[in-house]
Every structure is written in C-alpha cells, then in structure tokens.
Amino acid sequence: MDFFPSILTGYIETHSTAEDPVLAALNRETHLKHNLPQMVSGHQQGLLLELLSHMLQPQQILEIGTFTGYSAICLAKGLAKGGKLHTIDINNELEDITAKYYGLAGVSDRIVQYFGAAVDIIPAISGNFELVFIDADKQNYARYYDLIIDRVPVGGFILADNVLWSGRVAEAKHDKDTEALHAFNEKVQADPRVTNLLLSVRDGIMLMRKN
Are 86 and 60 in contact (CB under 8 A)? Predict the structure, then answer.
C-alpha cells in the first residue's frame, strides 16, 4: 500500500511529527496479535485524521470500521469539548484491545463503541455528524455513503479509506471489492452534494466536503 519510493517515505516520516507512544504500542500489538494488521491506519494516515479533526473540532464523529482503535483515538483527539466519537465494528472480539488503548490514550470518555452491523447501528445513533470516516467492508461503501450523506451538515466532511485498493481500481479487470470501490469513487465524483479530492495517502483516501 506504499506508492512512494522508500527513500521518499523515509523523508516524509522524518519531516512529520513523531508517532504518539500509545499509538506506536497499539500499532505494534496489532501487528503481533491480529490477522490482517495492515488494516490499522498507521502513523501518517492517523496523523492526517487527527489534524483534520482538530481543524473541524466536531461535536459528533462517526467512524464505520474500528478495527483495533488506532484511527478512533486519532479522531477523538480533535473533538470539541463534550464531543463524542461513535465507532462501529462487526467484530466484538476486538473490544479488549480497543478499550485498553482508549484508556491509555485518555479518550475513553469521548468514544462510544458499538459492535454489530453498521447498516443497523447507524440509523439508531441520534444527531448529525460533522465528520465521518468510512473504513469497513468495501462492498458496502456506497450503502454507508447513502446512509450518512443527509446526516452530514453543510461544511461537514466525509473520508473513505482504501479507495485506491493497492492501485487495482485503475486496472481493467476488477474483483468484487475492487469493483465496489471503483463504483464508489464514480458515485462520489458524480454527486453534486460534495466537493471531493482523492488523496494518495497510504492506500488512498477520498476526502469529501458537503456543499
């Protein structure tokens, strides 16, 4: 998922704020103990999420796809006073690691964790979301987008991860996940309700602002 030469990646890391020690420990534990550890957001993407959250200072954030909680911690750091991050994951076996690191990062009181199907949970959460981060099962990206677009106020932001899918979205032949991500990118591009920019950060982030 790294589209830059290693020498340039090293330069970027050298000229970015160092990874928070709690997040570094979470990253390491994820790689040691969990399948598909590449699903963790990691330093550069996490720092981008943190900075965007600080810029917006939202009252409510929705995250679809928690995994081990790295991105949730980053997003929660920028919440306005009294704000909440609502984060959803299908796998309740991750609760021990997420709860542990929310506590170590000092953000437990800002995070509401849900386990189950996001399509069922999202409608049950009240209010609107000034910031949404989609990073879950790829074939449902368009469905998640439809569920949340009317709940993001004008000026709010939506981010979707993995939209480059290791470059496969630009290839002629697509598997089901690649086709779903390509269709999602096309859907966003054609939607006049948002202004969007596909960022080449890590595996691609679609950044959208509600018009």
Answer: yes
